[in-house]
Specification:
2 copies of one chain form a homodimer.
Chain A lengths: L29 H7 L5 E3 L5 E6 L2 E7 L5 H12 L7 E5 L4 E5 L22 E2 L6 E3 L9 E5 L2 E6 L4 E4 L5 E4 L13 E4 L13 E7 L1 H5 L18 E2 L2 E4 L11 E4 L4 H11 L22 E3 L4
Antiparallel strand pairs in A: 1-16, 2-3, 2-15, 3-13, 4-5, 4-14, 5-12, 6-10, 7-8, 8-9, 9-10, 11-12, 11-13, 16-17
Amino acid sequence: MAPVRLFTLCALALTVTTAHAAELAPKPTLADVIKASTAADWRPLDPANTVYLELPAGRVVIELAPVFAPRHVANIRTLVREKYFDGLAVIRSQDNWVVQWGDPDETTPKSFGTALASLPGEFTIPLAADRHFTRLPDRDGYAPQVGHSDGMPSARDPKAKQAWLAHCYGMVGVGRDNGADSGNGSALYVVIGHGPRHLDRNITVVGRVVAGMPLLSTVPRGPGAMGFFDKAGQQVPIASVRLADDVAPAERSELEVMRTDSVAFQKAVEAQRNRGGPWTKVAAGYIDLCNAPIPVRDSKQK
Amino acid sequence: MAPVRLFTLCALALTVTTAHAAELAPKPTLADVIKASTAADWRPLDPANTVYLELPAGRVVIELAPVFAPRHVANIRTLVREKYFDGLAVIRSQDNWVVQWGDPDETTPKSFGTALASLPGEFTIPLAADRHFTRLPDRDGYAPQVGHSDGMPSARDPKAKQAWLAHCYGMVGVGRDNGADSGNGSALYVVIGHGPRHLDRNITVVGRVVAGMPLLSTVPRGPGAMGFFDKAGQQVPIASVRLADDVAPAERSELEVMRTDSVAFQKAVEAQRNRGGPWTKVAAGYIDLCNAPIPVRDSKQK
């Protein structure tokens, strides 16, 4: 019964009963939408804003968001170019929360080189600076408006004239101490559980993992408080972190992201928002910001 | 700078600037609420509705929800008592989606014994049957009302007079084929990513993992379609699955769950909904159902 494996939450070799409930009308699935998309619906990653986090198990590709965190992104680029992260480690893995990487040595920390040691928080930006926002159709609990800006889940408050990136699965943020200006991009985390949207506007969010999430999300959880590792042997060493710009073209990950201001993306969202076809019995008629799919593909396989 | 590790998303040894933004008033944290709770705020797990999934790395504890899925829970109890799951495996791990376990042998599947091979879906129950619902204060996108029923995230539609369990992180559901009546509890999955609430009312949800989530959430993702493992060596073998009732008292996990109809639980939710204190700069003023904490503790350590 191989076809069983095609269904979303299929079981194994179970008896298929034909007398099931009435079926919803077939609708394009996410796979259908991707298949029907054209080259204009996709954009390549900008090598100047793409970071490769090289772990023993492979590469994590992070797209930076300079529009939302210009100073932190610039500082991270400096840290990366001066090889700050090389030899550091994944130091924290907390279930349904975050995986974090940075300097494991608290007593004799590595020099930040020419990068700044701290920066004012970039928790929100002026609404006018968020120029490529595409709003989702549904209301949100955490913000007056939500949608996507250049491939990132984002939120807006028109009254406060602010926009910000949202803490969804795979989003990358800047660890900080109590001070809003105590972070600098040297300690970064990625969301690995249900989107902790209550952190929105409290943290500088600098980008999104577009490939390699499993390399971070499956790091064994740390036994210490908040998922920190107790012993050096538990940490995952970072071989290197590089800007794609500084990597030979042949060694780059050739990824494309679906443009979130395209009609194809609207269709991709709708495919999740109101599923059709034989498996679904009740279409949700709603989509949570963090459940909206942001398709990524290998441009060599398109 | 050891105290830095106490903060929610703290960095490492960063310079703490004292001239940061105005602080929010201190408020009880989740830890404060748990510390201030009394014995009456907690309930033990019912051994007749508690399942131990024994994996090589340790035990996963699942609380069943007989009120929401009486027939499936009864069938799962039969499968467990007849040792159906012993020797089966975790066969699927799909990032930001689910980890699933069941029979890896599609060609010569294991007998269900005296358990039923299929059951009508229990996707919703009559509203009147959900007798311990405590509503959350905020609106939800997927349902007219959301809250908690006996320790499980739940949703309700008063007009349709229906209630159901919600697909939040850690919730356990019954894999099925296209037919609403094609599942029987022999293939189970747990949510390991952002809550796929669009599955609500499409799946029989049978319970919640109350301990051991990291043993499932960190299973390396499967390379096959939908995260299925290609080769037997990738699967995680299941040593045994037992009802706590059938395990010697000395070998049981002595866990207690905070009563979700208690004042302490309301305070726990509020601690997440509106954080105070020196770290938080903006309190969310909202809580998503799947972000509400459901505290669990070891009764021996209380």
